[in-house]
Amino acid sequence: MAIIEAVDLRKVFRSVVRQPGLGGAIKALFSREVEETVAVDAVTFTLEPGELVGYLGPNGAGKSTTIKMLTGILVPTSGTLRVAGLVPAARRQDNAQNIGVVFGQRSQLYWDLPLRESFALLRAIYDIPSERYRTNMKAFAELLDLERFLDTPVRQLSLGERMRGDFAAAMLHDPRIVYLDEPTIGLDVIAKEAIRTFVAEINRERGTTVILTTHDLADVERLARRVILIDKGAVIYDGPLARLREEYGTHRTLVVTLARPYEGIEVSGATVESREGLVVRLRFERRQTSAEALIRRVMNDFEISDLQIIEPDIDSIVRRIYIEGYADGAAGAPS
Amino acid sequence: MTGSLPRRRFRLAPYVALASRAMAREATYRFDVFGSVASVLVRLYLLKMVWSALYAHNVSPAQLPLHAIITYSAVALLMGLVMDIDQTRALHDRLHDGTIATDFLKPISVPLGFFADGTGEVLFHAALIVPALVLSLLFVHIDLPSAATLAVFALSFVLGYLVGFWINFILNCSAFWTLEVSGVQLIVTWLTDLLGGEIIPLVIFPLALQKIVFVLPFAAMFSTPLLIYVGVIPPAGWAAALGVQLVWVLVLGGVATLLWRAGAHRIVVQGG
Amino acid sequence: MGTGRMLRVYREYWRINILTTLEYRANFLVWFAFTFVYHGSALAALWIMLARFPSMNGWDFRQMAFLYALWMVAHALHNTFFSSVSDVPDHVRDGEFDRLLVRPLDTLFQTIATPGQVFPDELILALATFVAACIYSGVRIDLVFVLFVPLIAIGGALIDLAMNLAISTTAIWFVRVDALRWIVAQLEQEFTRYPLGIYSRAVRILLTFVCPFAFINYFPATYFLGKTDGALGLPPVVGLLTPAIGIVFVALAYAFWRFGLDRYQSVGH
After folding, report:
1. Distances (CA, A) of C71 to A130, B46, B93, B128, B181
2. Contact check, Cβ <8 Å, C41/B46
């Protein structure tokens, strides 16, 4: 039995068209001209219990709107949505009991008091039985190394410590589903690793379903087996991450900082993506050109002061899918 | 310390720039603006009702008939739009979060810089007096005194404003030494309104209390200009009244300067 | 979710409030001084006015002191238990509001039970002032008085809550509600210091039926002090209706709140 079922999920925002300035604001009071923005358009997917899915897309693609509908914050304009058998917005409180949410940018902990007190309050809010609370606290303290700062006021914690606290807070009541929104943003490498290990652990040991929204491809690679890619409100890919990478993430960019302002730049095996002053971005296909060969060619032909290789990110993969069209009809192809 | 440096010519431009920026900033707080004006109107209505009720059933003071006390209240509230601004709040805020250090690095006089910044805010609020006045006239009658009286009132208003400016400056300076003064500031504001005669004319106070309040600087802020306006202080008394205000301006200015020097010294020497 | 859960959460919330307040002890002293000066200067202003003009629509200073003190208790009750409702507009603006929707409890309850720094000083001061005012005004303290005054104080706090909640709810549409809040605050704090009869008919109706602040202290005081003011021609005994008025208005405000939530969930922010 699927734990999340979304069928033809649609969210349309209407706003009154208004021009800037005072005149525009007054006109807007009387105008009936409404503009519709389709934030989420016919999104359909199913999640089985225990899945760990990366929900990815460029900014403004409709990711957070979808998450808000799943968590019960927003009501869909049309379509069916069932989370653990409930319609989220209709059964808000019951749905809330089943889920945990970590907003990377915003903490749910109480700033002025020790971490421990936030947990105590959450325990009351989620009505967690004492035994369960003790067991979880012990487990998380170990997994996330919380003991050290359990009694420190939250406002004095580093970002990494606070995030770990937020994770424990989200999991305290044994939610069946956890939504992670940019969970590793701003963290150093060690902290990121700790968080990723924790997420992998709870997914494996407790069978918690995890939906991960992130711009950090490394997060996704480390954790998610399945990836749902959304752009302009529609799902453009739903499947294994490996396949996405293989087919659409094969390009790379070589960023070259020239030592002198050369005139025309041409390198065989790569296309010039952009040029700004001394910095040239060269794009090449991994399968056709090896990085090593390209670098050698570049260093032969030009004097270089710096080099950098950039892996494809979500944005460039999405752009590419759009330009080339998603060939495999597994998920709705853009028209 | 500064012996070898040549004395720089005083430039007005940076201060004007600061003031304009402050004005633009204030203009963006649309709702606060609307709130201030609305607040004046609501208070004025209330005072009109209160005084009318009090005058109806009691013996009214000869020197201040009903129309005069209502005029007093209206002008007091309009003055409040400007007087209630803490022009040197920036000083306190920056002392608090440490950014004051960068101010000492700029090639402008620090206290004047704060004054200029606050002036923009003050001028913007002063402009608010016009719509507030127009709207007030819709439901109260404000007496108009002679041109001479108005001129002296204006002068007295400016002096009163300066007294308030120095008082705020002194309070803000205390941030050099203590941590948290915003509560104290609010306390002083409330006391000022009552003891300064903004809410109730000081001549209404019981005689025993009058002896005290007229001696305090707060009276110089509101009461003096207002009593000039409504004629309780006749032309014969103008010079003396303005004189007292001037004395307060000088005395408080002196205290403020001393405090500022001591505090700035502390920052520069100790690093705050 | 169950009442038991709500009670436990409420208890935890208060524990955290107290801990937080203790954490910021120094702050507390300054704010107490401010509270003292605020109410002190309000009473002082009344005293000065009535010293010069002994009667205001048939009310003397003793009675006005009682009027003020009664308001003070209700107002302090509201500030102690319901003040966090005023923070809703900020939360709507910065996105914190979403957090309330993601937790398994009623949103209004969560708003009220949001930990912060709660100073009980105003309430203690209000109670002390009220006791002093009762003695000073010589109000008749009978069984009705003893039974109803606590209920009226609570009713007054509920009226304040209702208005606070209604204004906060409008933030879902208008985002910035400061101007509205200031004006209503002036009605609640300053207009209630004086007998209702001094205002024009329109304002009397406003303060009785729309923003029923007159029920916080004026009507009850009229009853207890044995006055026959007849403002709006209502018999003094309506002063005992305050608890009911409080409950009715909170119910109305809550309905409006739910309406606002529906809109928030359909339109976002």
Report:
1. 44, 18, 35, 33, 29
2. no
Which residue pairs, CB below 8 angstroms and at least 24 apart, start in B92-96? B92/B171, B92/B172, B92/B175, B92/B181, B92/B182, B92/B185, B95/B172, B95/B175, B95/B176, B95/B272, B96/B175, B96/B179
**C contacts of A117 (beta carbons < 8 Å):** 16, 19
Q: What is the pLDDT of residues A222-262, one digit of tens each?
A: 888 899 988 888 898 899 888 887 777 788 888 999 888 88
Task: Tell me how many degrees the CA angle B134-B137-B143 measures, rounded to the nearest 5.
Answer: 115
Amino acid (one-letter) located at C88: V
State the Cα angle at C106 between C103 and C111, rounded to 5°.
85
Element (H, E) at A274: strand A271-276
Angle at the Cα of B75 from the Cα atoms of B226 and B218, rounded to 5 degrees: 45
- The ranges assigned to domains in chain C are 3-267
Nearest-10 Cα torsion for A29, C255, C90, C100: -130
C-alpha distance from residue A324 to each of A231, A245, A313, C237 (Å) = 14, 15, 17, 80
* Phi, psi (degrees; rounded to nearest 5) at A14: -110, 135
ipTM: 0.91
Q: Residue ranges of the domains in chain B?
A: 13-270
CA dist., res. A307 & res. A255, Å (int): 6
Query: What's the first-to-final CA gap in chain B, in angstroms?
Result: 19
Return the structure tokens found at C115. Answer: 């930990």
C5 vs A: CB within 8 A: yes
How wide is the angle at C-alpha C249 spanned by C-alphas C243 and C250, nearest 5°? 90
Q: Which pTM was predicted?
A: 0.84
B194 contacts in chain C (CB < 8 Å): 41, 44-45
* pLDDT for residue B107: 64
C37-90 residue pLDDT tens: 889 999 999 999 999 999 999 999 999 999 999 999 999 999 999 989 999 999
